[in-house]
Design a protein that fits this description.
Pfam family, one: Trypsin
Keywords: Disulfide bond, Hydrolase, Protease, Serine protease, Signal
InterPro entries: Peptidase_S1_PA (IPR009003), Peptidase_S1_PA_chymotrypsin (IPR043504), Peptidase_S1A (IPR001314), Trypsin_dom (IPR001254), TRYPSIN_SER (IPR033116)
Strand content: 25-35%
Protein name: Peptidase S1 domain-containing protein
CATH class of the largest domain: Mainly Beta
CATH architecture of the largest domain: Beta Barrel
Shape: globular
Distance between the termini: 52 Å
Largest sheet: 6 strands, antiparallel, barrel
CATH topology of the largest domain: Thrombin, subunit H
Helix content: 10-25%
Number of strands: 15
Order of helices and strands: HEEEEEEEEEEHEEEEHE
Number of domains: 2
Radius of gyration: 19 Å
GO molecular function: serine-type endopeptidase activity
CATH superfamily of the largest domain: Trypsin-like serine proteases
């Protein structure tokens, strides 16, 4: 009798552990407000994607979603390129990066409905050649699950190695971060002078000055949900960088839960977390 009880208890513990997503924890992140150079480990899921031989320039960002898969933008993925490396745990644009782990990409999957003219379904997955070890500097982000909603005015964060201003074609020395508010759909449609894909959300300041830029594409837009960081968007398109009344456009992660789960069958299932009532305080 006692043996059966112990077995049942162990089974229950295992089920409870498995039900808690392994994602979204950033113990070295103490961010509250503002935008500036990040500190090492602040965004442990951030990935630098660099096509070609080792040592080539950064092209796009991405996010680690489990031990062997990276989420990025479809327009960041060139299916004709056979050699792509990703770097995790990286902080400096160039070496030294003592916490860095390098992996080769062995599979690239664009969303099957991706449209490179209108930038619809701008989402892609990269499979790494081997699992990465988790640490304070390398850890997967949680993903917004289907049905999630992020209200206008909520503060979101985005980080990357993209250009620091429009027309300045140089990369920063270190990973940069910025906090920007989510913008409502109607306001975004009025602000964007081109076709706005229906699977997107927008973020930015009315007065401009804080935004993503070239080189940030594919990177994660995250919000804090309780004690976890949850990715709600993937950097997609925009008009210029940091222009007034011209927010950045992000592919909405919650709409892709089924596709991501179906494609990432190797390794642990990425951690999906519901984002609800995330209203501006």
């Amino acid at each position: 009798k006692s043996r059966l009880s112990a077995t049942a208890a162990v089974t229950l513990v295992i089920l409870l552990v498995r039900s808690v997503p392994v994602c979204g924890q950033a113990p070295l992140n103490t961010r509250i407000v503002g935008g500036q150079e990040s500190s090492p480990g602040s965004w442990p899921w951030i990935v630098s994607i660099r096509p070609g031989e080792r040592g080539k320039d950064h092209v796009c960002g991405g996010s680690l979603i489990n031990e062997q898969w990276v989420l990025t933008a479809a327009h960041s993925v060139n299916l004709k390129t056979n050699l792509v490396y990703v770097y995790l745990g990286r902080h400096n644009y160039n070496d030294p990066n003592p916490n860095q782990v390098e992996r080769k990409v062995i599979t690239m999957k664009r969303h099957p409905q991706y449209d490179d003219v209108f930038n619809e379904y701008d989402m892609a997955l990269l499979k790494l050649d081997s699992p990465v070890p988790f640490s304070q500097y390398i850890y997967p982000v949680c993903l917004a699950s289907g049905g999630s909603s992020v209200h206008a005015g909520v503060s979101a964060w985005v980080a990357g190695w993209g250009y620091t201003q429009e027309g300045n074609f140089t990369f920063p020395n270190t990973l940069r971060e910025v906090s920007i508010p989510i913008i409502g759909d109607n306001q975004c449609k009025c602000a964007i002078p081109f076709f706005l894909p229906p699977d997107t959300l927008c973020a930015g300041l009315q007065e401009g000055g804080k935004d993503t830029c070239q080189g940030d594409s594919g990177g994660p837009l995250v919000v804090k949900e309780g004690t976890r960081w949850v990715q709600v968007g993937v950097v997609s398109i925009g008009q210029g960088c940091g222009r007034a009344k011209s927010p950045g456009v992000y592919s909405e992660v919650s709409l892709y839960e089924e596709w991501v789960k179906n494609e990432t069958t190797s390794g642990n299932t990425p951690g999906f977390v519901s984002v609800k009532n995330n209203c501006k305080k």
